[in-house]
Write a structure and sequence with these properties.
Helix content: under 10%
Radius of gyration: 16 Å
Strand content: over 45%
CATH class: Mainly Beta
Number of strands: 8
Distance between the termini: 40 Å
Structural class: mainly beta
Organism: Duganella dendranthematis
Domain Sulphur oxidation protein SoxZ: 10-101
InterPro entries: Ig-like_fold, Ig_E-set, SoxZ, SoxZ_dom
Pfam families: SoxZ (PF08770)
CATH superfamily: Immunoglobulins
CATH topology: Immunoglobulin-like
Number of helices: 0
Protein name: Thiosulfate oxidation carrier complex protein SoxZ
Amino acid sequence: MARALIHMSASAKRGEIIEIRALIGHSMETGYRVGADGRLLARDIIRKFACRYNGEQVFGAELHQAISANPYIAFFTVATDSGTLEFTWEGDNGFAHTEKMNLTVSAS
């Protein structure tokens, strides 16, 4: 099971731009390296990341073999309404991980 760390404000003012930082623990094997037995190691990477804010996707990324282990992603969005941000990572070999964070938005 992967471990994800998400850093974002728990509250914001309506219209405020907030920064969101997400990191997930994953070895990200490229499929190009050779193991101790001289054979290629099987590819095992995270291929997609998405963030949905109250069900609407506000950020997405397609990842490839060149991404480092434990990929870190930072992005910004505008606080519009109180609700839930859902973070989803999908990868090879059926890998899928989802985390949720709540955001409380005040009028001003």
